[in-house]
Amino acid sequence: MSRIEKALEKAASMRSREGFNSRVEESPVSGPPVAPGKPSLDELLATEPVRVNNPRLVALRDENDIAFEEYNKLRSLVIKLTQGEKFSNTLMITSCIGEEGKSLTSLNLAIALARGFDHTVLLVDTDFRRPTLHHSLGVKPESGLIQCLRDDLPIDRALVKTGIGKLVFLPAGGSMNKPVEMLGSNKMKEIVKEVKNRYPERYVIFDTPPVLPFADAQVLAPLMDGFIFVVREGRTRLNDVKKALQTLQGSNMLGVLYNDAHVSMKNKSHYYYS
Asked: Domain tally for the chain?
């Protein structure tokens, strides 16, 4: 049995036991905010693509290499797990600790979904402690989710049109050291409800801080339809993974993405679900 299979077996066993139903230097581009009101999808998507030169955004590649196909597989699995009588479209991406690849996973999954035919995607940066998604996309937004929560800025005025497939981006809007109260507020609950229901067939992907160092993901998880847990090989201890998943107990874990696996040089990420 390979290390990947053993990791999957442990994850599935643990889930059953515990009841679990870089900044890129490039020319800065400021994505234009969406006008006030409730814009149509055509208005949201009609823009020139942002200039992205990040080799880690493999979902942007046109050639069918191994990494590109891995995210296509992830996209297919996510669609399979979220389609049903009720569309489970609000997804949280998190990890045990930092530097496991959760933000890159959020970006690549969002891009992979947005480049398909059937779904629009809203990518939301809720990592107020260390927001990085706008760097990877090469944009310099003037406002974001923080201003929507703190200053009652309409969401439409904070959205950034990326021009990448059907992807729209809601940046963090800055950074702060103690965001738990803001993320756990009634205003945040209203915003999650609004972005979930505004457009049909739209995935809303939330990038959050890691679970063990901070309480942010634990606060956000109950607001989500499900979450994906990123584990990087050689980075996280199994006991820490167990602690993190215990913290999120009661929320719907869609699966574990086993990242940067070295079992084979041809496979760099694996996704497991049950």
From this structure: 1
Q: Which residue, 193, 198, 122, is CA-closest to 164?
A: 122
Q: Are strands 160-161 and 167-170 parallel, antiparallel or unpaired?
A: antiparallel
Residue 196 sits in a domain whose CATH number is 3.40.50.300
**Reported pTM:** 0.78
Q: At what angle do helices 102-114 and 66-82 cross, to 10 degrees?
A: 80
201 by Cβ neighbours in 10 Å (0-12 / 13-18 / 19+) ranks as exposed
In a domain, 54, yes or no: no
Band (116; pLDDT cuts 50, 70, 90)? confident
Cβ atoms within 10 Å of 100's Cβ, excluding its own:
22
**42 lies in a domain?**
no
For CA atoms 258, 218, 103, 43, the dihedral sign is positive
